[in-house]
Amino acid sequence: MDSLTQVALGASIGVAVMGRRTAVWKAAAWGGLAGLLPDLDVLIDHGDALLNMVRHRGPSHSLIWLSLLAPALAWLAQTLSSPRPGSALAGGPGSTWALWSVALWLALFTHPLLDLMTIYGTQVWQPLSDEAYGLGSMFIIDPLYSLPLLLGLIGAAVARRLSWGLGANALGLFLSTVYLAWSALAQASVADHARQSLAAAGLPSDRLLVTPAPLQTQLWRVVALDGERYHEGYYALRDQGRPIRFRAFDRGGDLLVRHAAHVQVQRLQRFADGFVAMRQEGADLWITDLRMGQRPYYVFDFNIGAAAADPAAPPPAQQVSARIPLAAGLQWLGRRMAGEDLDPPGQ
Question: How confident is the model at residue 307, as a pLDDT?
């Protein structure tokens, strides 16, 4: 998820766990910091755009490393946040290192768990495995998830009574968690309908991707791989069972086979679980992650160098991201969510 949402989740957890044992702003600040820390790996430049992609959400998102970090971060929080002698909080059993450890461990630990709900890919078992996992039931930015957390934190900060503020924060955490569960259930339902639609059209459904369109969970994008082609379609919950209309696009299957030994092709194939397309423009090869974006606007589209280059030591990949025109994209999103069977912008 986006970093603002991760900060809000960490801050909300910090307030919920620390409760009355420290000032609300201190619990929120330290929890928010813990929620942000894993994403600081974006500051590392590996000198190659494709490497930057596949190594993001790597060791910094490891459940093992984050669990080991939590006690040290808790010691720092306890040391810097100790209440003044004589204050109502001084000496309280809840403002101990152990309670800070629980709060900050949860703030750190839930960061990669929330990222697992997106399709990007999170390496939660580093250093034991570099396999990237992603359920894909949440878009990277979803206001309906983030807003309850933010409103709960605001309530905790401005409430006249601490109990009211803690209640508002707890409610925000509860509603956001329910929304996560809803997204997974909606995804499963759409995936089942997609398989039925593919079967009715005589298309394979064994390699299937179902993710929400931007900013919500009412409209879903479906991609099915079919050898040389991939099929893309959309299903809105307001379609009320209408079969999904798929469009077929070439994915450069011959190029993928011909350049299977190319190190960049191997990297992205593994990271994207095979949901890639390849093309050649002039002398240069391009490879695209089909999971994020939509035809023809993909976030991760890479020029991986000349086709004649050494496949074991190609030049650094260059990323080019295509963005949907904002006005046209929002208009299509709203109308398609309402159940209108419209083609996406650019198609």
Answer: 85
CB 262 within 8 A of CB 245: no
Cis peptide before 296 (omega within 30 of 0): yes
What distance in Å separates the CA atoms of residue 263 and residue 267, rounded to the nearest whole number? 6
Backbone angles phi, psi at 232, to 5 degrees: -120, 135
For residue 7, give both structure tokens.
């900060």
Angle at 17 between CA 12 and CA 21, to 5 degrees: 115
CA separation for the pair 44, 112 (Å, rounded): 18
Cβ neighbours of 334 (radius 10 Å): 12
Query: What pLDDT does residue 294 have?
Result: 93
CA–CA distance, 214 with 2 (Å, rounded to integer): 13
Q: What is the pLDDT of residue 83?
A: 59
State the Cα–Cα distance between residues 35 and 107, nearest whole angstrom.
5
Amino acid at 189: S
Output the CA torsion sign for 292, 297, 299, 300.
positive
Alpha helix ranges (H) inside 117-161: 143-158
* Domain ranges, ordered by start, for the chain: 3-134, 192-327
> What was the pLDDT predicted at 86?
45
- Closest of 235, 210, 237, 239 to residue 224, by C-alpha: 210
Cα dihedral 43→44→48→53 (10° resolution):
-70
Averages of pLDDT over each 10 residues, the chain, 347 residues: 96 95 93 97 95 96 97 92 52 68 97 97 96 96 97 94 94 97 98 96 94 97 94 96 95 94 96 96 96 94 90 92 92 95 90
Distance CA 155, CA 168 (A): 6
CA atoms of 111 and 39, how far apart (whole Å)? 9
Query: Can you give the pTM of this predicted structure?
Result: 0.91
pLDDT of residue 347: 82
